[in-house]
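Recap from last week: sequence in, structure out.
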Amino acid sequence: MDIYKTINIKLQTISKESLIKKMGYGSVKKGLDSLKLFEDSKDLYSWISAGHYDLKYSSSQFFEKLCEVLEIEKNDVKFALVQQAKYKNEIDKFNSCYIFVNTNFKRTTQPIFILAFAEGARRIGLDTKEFVFKTQEEILDSISNIVASHFKRKDGKVEVWGDIKNYIYHNFDGETYTFDVDGKQIENIEVSQSRATLSLK
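Predicted structure tokens:
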């Protein structure tokens, strides 16, 4: 069973106030607040990656101490932390990935501040958790579904930028992959991907 689920099951059978005292908290309220945040997390990764610190424990230290008091096997705890580190590395790997929505836009009379505010519409952000530990083929299949759904949802147009011609997926390794509006991978083409930005002086 997942260690996070194991912990939550154990928490249902004990006095939380007593638990917090055993964890060494001087303030029971502060400890209970941290415990509540831990229980409300979606999973162990969400808890650790949140970077919680309550002036006594960091999120990972809290997890380790909680496991110690709940008498969870140390090897299970160590394994869980190693897996979380691997999971984080995988997620971080995809942070720079995105899909560019190409409309072959050519600026004419459009004010630059309008284009700057609309810039985000030309880039599709990705839920990195969806790509963790997937093969390249699985990743490209997911991208295919994303772009096909995007084209349908947008009725083939992007506000300000015009009609969608194709999509360019930027992978974590620097490679790019081009997809047509139906989500089919096609031969890479030369596409200008300049960004409209504003700066304060």
